[in-house]
Specification:
12 helices; 339 residues; TIM Barrel; 8-stranded parallel β-barrel; binds iron/sulfur cluster
């Protein structure tokens, strides 16, 4: 395992030639294991109710926004709109409210989603193994859960109340999802919350532990940076583009087979560069508000979880990928009956 001082050294590297060497190595490994393929997905928010208070998030329980929980009919409208864009791989998201979006609600959302998409992942409140198993039987393929920061002190500072303030329960979530049979698990840190090198090392150790104890699962990693929400900064983030690129390259070199995700919170220029050096999965045509695809189309009606930087459509992204000799991948499997 890489040492903390080695990670710090790489992140501090200023010599452009050395950084380019790192990028070149990452590029070669990515092409070796993934070819020129980029998977596409879209997020779909079904609820923004949240009983936790995370200082960096627009959905936090103290923020005065219009709270919405989609009805089954509204879900169908939103899902149909996303499916029409060509998306087959959907990430369903909620705020973290065990009351507003209980297991039964999530199961219903998954049942509806199965009619529109071939692969369904969830980014919702952490649950027990039994609950994950019930969702797996319903048709869930993937679970996304980021620790945000592995620094306990910093974690307590930014997670002020609610279930999310339980550091240990959250850190144990990937293990519970794996025990339930979930096939794809995505971990990550929110860059800018804690010390990057320390968070990276802790994330790498967490992933190594998961790979050793729960092999056979398709793991992926994300490194979202803090973003403004409706133009307001909820927390400071001074992670520059070069640092993010170094993080992606280092991760690729250490984990050749692991998927690297990049969302539309990053700029088109950065995303276009990142797919060349290591990223393998990107979102496209995204909206981060509940009902933002079809129900509530104007910015005044929307309360996004964070602001989007890359507003290109799925069509635009596909065209760009093809121009660059990449194969856009909408789905790499057909639905199977998990039960
Ligand atoms: S990050 Fe999640 S748990 Fe925290 S406020 Fe936002 S939606 Fe709620």
């Amino acid at each position: 395992m890489i040492t903390l001082s080695a990670i710090k050294e790489i992140l501090a590297e200023q010599d452009p030639a050395r950084v380019e060497q790192l990028a070149q190595k990452s590029r070669e490994i990515t092409r070796q294991y993934f070819g020129r393929t980029i998977s596409l997905y879209a997020p779909l928010y079904v609820s923004n109710y949240c009983s936790s208070h995370c200082t960096y998030c627009g959905f936090h329980s103290k923020n005065r926004i219009t709270r919405i929980r989609l009805t089954p009919d509204q879900m169908r409208r939103e899902m149909e709109a996303v499916a029409k864009m060509g998306i087959e791989n959907i990430l369903l998201l909620t705020g973290e409210s065990y009351q507003a979006t209980p297991l039964a609600y999530l199961k219903e959302a998954v049942q509806i989603a199965k009619k529109y998409f071939t692969s369904i992942s969830l980014e919702v409140h952490p649950m027990s193994t039994d609950e994950y198993r019930a969702l797996f039987y319903e048709g869930v393929d993937g679970i996304t859960v980021y620790q945000e920061t592995y620094d306990r002190g910093r974690y307590a500072e930014v997670h002020l109340s609610g279930k999310k303030s339980d550091y240990d329960y959250r850190r144990d979530t990937p293990r519970r999802a794996a025990l339930a049979g979930i096939r794809q698990i995505s971990l990550g840190i929110l860059l800018g919350l804690g010390d990057i090198a320390e968070d990276l090392q802790a994330l790498y150790e967490h992933l190594r532990w998961m790979e050793k104890n729960h092999p056979g699962i398709e793991y992926s990693l994300s490194f979202p940076r803090l973003r403004k929400i409706k133009g307001r900064a909820f927390a400071l983030c001074d992670v520059n583009d070069t640092t993010l690129i170094k993080v992606l390259c280092l991760t690729r070199i250490l984990f050749p087979r692991v998927g690297l995700n990049l969302s539309t919170r990053e700029t088109p220029a950065l995303r276009d560069h990142a797919i060349e050096i290591g990223v393998t999965r990107i979102s496209a045509g995204s909206n981060t508000s509940v009902g933002g695809y079809d129900l509530f189309k104007t910015p005044e009606e929307q309360d996004p979880q964070f602001d989007i930087e890359d507003r290109r459509s799925v069509h635009d992204i596909v065209r760009l990928l093809k121009e660059r000799q990449f194969d856009p991948v909408f789905t790499d499997w057909r639905p199977i009956d998990n039960a």
